[in-house]
Amino acid sequence: RKEFVDLYVNYVFNESIRKPFEVFMQGFLRGCPARKWKMFLPVELQTVLEGHTKFDWRLLEKNVTYIQYGMLDRTIRNFWTVFHKLPEEKKKMFLAFLSGSDRIPGCGLEHFRFSIVDPQVKKPDELYPYASTCRRILFLPR
Q1: Is the N or C terminus of the chain more exposed, i.e. has fewer CB atoms within 10 Å?
Q2: Which molecular-function annotation in GO is an example for this chain (predicted)?
């Protein structure tokens, strides 16, 4: 029985996926040559590919650029007051809304920048906040 179980486990986890894995590995190595990723330790490679999962939200606040706003504008103060009261999961959802990912890129939070812009519309109460994920801009009506 032990031999059967060992052979079955080997088949399921190794033999049955060998061909699809080889095809995946060829494509992966074409896009990310081994000589470039072998320099990373496994944990470092994971961070480069997945991003950071631990956040210092106060540092994020410090890295913001304001356009047509000042740090002390009431809208901005209200935004950060509400933001810091959010649970961790909602903060990550905001990050995904802003940048398209709920993680910080491998370069780290100290290099993660975004802007908060006043869209300067005539009726700001009729406009929801929206984001440009490519440029990491939050358009926040007054």
Answers
A1: N
A2: ubiquitin protein ligase activity
